[in-house]
Amino acid sequence: MKYHIDTIPVWDAMKRDGECLLCALERKTELDEAERYLGASVMEPDIRVQVNAKGFCRRHHGMLYGMSNRLGHALMLESHMIETRERTAKAIKKLEGAADALKGSGLAGKFSGKSKNAEATIREQAAELLDMAGSCLMCDTIEENMMRYLHTFFHLYQNDSDFRSRFAGGKGLCLPHTGRLLEAAPAELGAKELGEFVSTVARLQTENLDRIQEDISWFVKKFDYRYEKESWGTSKDAVERTVNKLRGWCVGKEPVE
How high does pLDDT run on average in the chain? Predict the structure, then answer.
């Protein structure tokens, strides 16, 4: 079949024969985005507008900080802080008004309309602060890319017999990405294809969770003196692979180069 800009990275991730091709795609996207935000795009007006509005989550700030470009990180933080201060100032002004209303109401006014309005204002501004603290431009971009890759996965699954065979004979996926594929499958596949796909996924998960279970159990046994002379087999990295299989890649060897 004809390959294009979206099918190539999906095929590349499949060929790595890792524990989850979608984890590999997600991590590659994440690394590319981090480099992009600390590169020349840090000075692009449209990027700065997006960064100013959303900022980054704790995880991605930690990632950006670890990439040793303090100036690039600081430039984004400076303008994001200015915009956040403006939004925070508005929220604080409303909170102060609610606080004054409550302090002046006394015990008798606990259930008055004025008090209830003040409490509603506090909840609204709490939600506003949480929204400011919880938004992340990188998370949003990664999610957009992953939605596209999910669609591309099913395009290849339907139209490329080699890809379908490689998937059926592979190591399956992590649990979170298994759920995401199954969630998307009914909209992407016809009834017969869907049934075959679900059967394949169920088999892959059973076989590969059994494999991981055996490795982590053997890893534990190797700390028993009775097994110290036995071979480690494939269990030396069982802790990392078990975590990554259950929760998606987060520890150990990178799923991409």
Answer: 92
> Quick check: 183 pLDDT over 90?
yes
Degrees to nearest 5, angle at CA 135 with 94 and 120:
30
Hey, how many other C-beta atoms are within 10 angstroms of the C-beta on 236?
13
Is 15's pLDDT higher than 90?
yes
197 contacts 185 by C-beta, under 8 angstroms? yes
Q: Taking the alpha carbons of 90, 95, 100, 104 in that order, is the dihedral positive or negative?
A: positive
Place of tokens 């080699």: 162
> Rg (Cα) of the chain, in Å, rounded?
25
Residue 249 has which token pair?
């890649």
Q: Residue 148 is encoded by which pair of tokens?
A: 């596209």
Rounded average pLDDT over 123-140: 95
Unique residue bearing structure tokens 């690039």: 72
Q: Which two tokens stand for residue 29?
A: 């996207």
State how far the Cα of 195 lies from the Cα of 6, in Å rounded to an integer.
26
Count of beta carbons in the 10 Å neighbourhood of residue 35: 13
* C-alpha closest to that of 146 among 170, 169, 177: 177
Q: List, as own/partner pairs, every contact residues 158-163 make where C-beta atoms lie below 8 angstroms and the sequence separation is at least 24, other chains included.
A: 158/188, 158/189, 158/193, 159/1, 160/1, 163/11, 163/14
**Residue 84 token pair:** 């956040």
Q: What is the pLDDT of residue 7?
A: 92
| Verdict on whether the full-model pTM lies above 0.70 | yes
Of residues 116 and 175, more confidence is placed in 175
